[in-house]
Write a structure and sequence with these properties.
Blueprint: H1 2-18, E1 26-30, H2 37-53, E2 57-61, H3 68-75, E3 83-88, H4 89-98, H5 106-109, E4 110-119, E5 121-125, H6 134-143, E6 149-152, H7 158-170, E7 175-178, H8 182-191, E8 196-200, H9 201-209, E9 214-218, E10 245-252, H10 257-271, H11 274-282, E11 285-287, H12 292-313
Parallel strand pairs: 1-2, 1-3, 6-7
Antiparallel strand pairs: 3-10, 4-10, 4-11, 5-8, 5-9
Length: 318
């Protein structure tokens, strides 16, 4: 009887495995609250993947602890291709250096699927701040150390590490005020509770255009199409300054190679389309398709780079 039951279980598993992928909805976890860059990029990608895969791809926001709660949940999910993570620089490259007891290892616990986009950060200030250029902001910060405060989406977030790099390069002292997500960090910047932030272009582009915040510089080495009049921070006198964000999809480690390959192929087709490239460009982002191997190399190299910043700035988790 036991042999018969085992045989039936094996046959059932074999039939389930034989089902074409995907045979049910897919969950794309965004490890931050709605309104931030990761969420903004995830939603059009999910929509296009739904169309390509003929199955619904549902975005689930699961924020907390600088993105590590959502990332850990995906790392511990079944490796069957039905739970994916919209990862980014913080969760995949910065977190290992920031959290001494990180519950997941980006190299061991994820299977990279592919890059999605790269985006410059933009240094923005509340209009009440008496600085109209990067150099004027630096002079203001040096004249009154610890008087200016900047917001971020949390300890270890892209805004946090970008401003800490800025402080290291300029010898300034600016107080960090972490929030639970980019959206509230930007809201308080607009309200004047903090003086500045340096965050991805998408969440602040509208506010730059309507004058509710003032853009002083972008963190890429070249100006961006969405803000052609805004100089780069390097251009403004902070030599070789670069702090771009990047985003990509990963699956739990052990996800079958054919599933990873299918997802990567569909993702690359989406990102190579003129429609998606234009959509991302309008947000100040660059479509950045890659192979899984290229994405893995990007994660590894960025992890080394930002570990040096975390250690030099003595960044501590919450």
């Amino acid at each position: 009887m036991r042999t018969v039951l085992l045989l039936c279980a094996w046959l059932a598993a074999s039939c389930a495995w034989a089902q074409p992928y995907p045979s049910k909805p897919i969950k794309l976890v965004v490890p931050f609250p709605p309104g931030g860059s990761t969420d903004i990029f995830a939603r059009p990608i999910a929509q296009r993947l739904s169309e390509a895969l003929k199955q619904q791809v549902v975005v689930e926001n699961r924020g907390g602890a600088g993105g590590t709660i959502g990332a850990d949940a995906v790392a511990k999910s079944p490796p069957d291709g039905y739970t994916l993570l919209m990862g980014h620089i913080g969760t995949l490259a910065v977190a290992p250096s920031l959290y001494p007891k990180l519950p997941y290892d980006p190299r061991r616990d994820f299977a990279p699927v592919g890059m999605v986009a790269s985006v410059a950060n933009v240094l923005v200030v509340n209009p009440s701040v008496p600085a109209r250029s990067v150099q004027e902001l630096i002079a203001l910060a040096k004249r009154d150390p610890d008087k200016l405060a900047y917001s971020s989406g949390g300890n270890g977030s892209a805004a946090h590490i970008a401003v800490e790099l800025f402080k290291l390069r300029t010898g300034t002292r600016i107080v960090h005020v972490p929030y639970k997500g980019t959206a509230p960090a930007v809201t308080d910047l607009i309200g004047g509770q903090v003086a500045m932030t340096m965050t991805g272009v998408p969440p602040v582009l509208e506010f730059i255009r309507n004058g509710r915040v003032r853009a002083l510089g972008v963190s890429s080495l070249r100006r961006i199409d969405a803000l052609p009049e805004v100089p780069t921070i390097a251009e403004a006198g902070v030599a070789d300054f670069e702090a771009t964000q990047w985003y990509g999809i990963v699956a739990p480690a052990g996800t079958p190679a054919p599933i990873v390959a299918r997802l990567n192929a569909e993702l690359r087709l989406i990102l190579e389309s003129a429609e998606m490239r234009e959509r991302l460009a309008a947000l100040g982002a660059l479509a950045d398709p890659s192979t899984p191997e290229e994405f893995a190399q990007r994660i590894a190299s960025e992890r080394v780079r930002w570990r040096e910043v975390v250690e030099a700035a003595r960044i501590q988790p919450d």
